[in-house]
Each structure stands twice: as structure tokens, then as C-alpha cells.
Design a protein that fits this description.
Largest sheet: none
Distance between the termini: 63 Å
Number of strands: 0
Helix content: over 70%
Strand content: under 5%
Shape: flat
Structural class: mainly alpha
Number of helices: 5
Oligomer: single chain
């Protein structure tokens, strides 16, 4: 039997609903978008590992800061609404 077959469904659901797992999925989605954009720009598939390393170097810090602000319910820096 595999570990996942022994694992209760409630545990799997708990993990899927955890904030850590949700952050992982959101970050992975951003990396996949970056992979697609860079592959299109260069004209060939750059692969996940290269996209991951490039995204971490260029975008991770600002993405995480924006994500923290989004979760906290505030707009990212420079994106605040201006008074009319």
C-alpha cells in the first residue's frame, strides 16, 4: 500500500486547505506563467527549473510582498487609490 492510500481523506483535505499549500500552489502558478512567457519570448521551452530559478531571482520577493499585502487587505505599494 502507498502512503497516500493509508492516509485518511480528512488529512488530505486538511493539507489541501492549509494556507501553506495554497501559497505553494499560487507561487507554482506564477512560475508556470513565467515559464510560458519566457519560452514564448525566446522561442523555445526553457523548462521548469530554469523558469523557477529565473523567477526566484527576478520576481519572488516583490510577488511575496504583494501577496502579503493582498492577504492583509491592502493594495501593493504604489497601487493605493488616490483621492479624487
Amino acid at each position: 500500500m502507498t502512503a497516500s492510500a493509508q492516509e485518511p481523506a480528512t488529512t488530505r483535505e486538511f493539507v489541501k486547505q492549509s494556507s501553506l499549500y495554497q501559497e505553494f500552489l499560487a507561487e507554482r502558478e506564477e512560475i508556470l506563467k513565467h515559464k510560458w512567457l519566457e519560452s514564448e519570448r525566446l522561442g523555445y521551452d526553457i523548462g521548469f527549473e530554469r523558469a523557477l530559478l529565473d523567477w526566484i531571482r527576478k520576481h519572488r520577493e516583490s510577488w511575496r510582498a504583494a501577496r502579503r499585502q493582498q492577504v492583509a487587505g491592502t493594495a501593493p505599494a504604489g497601487m493605493e487609490k488616490k483621492a479624487s
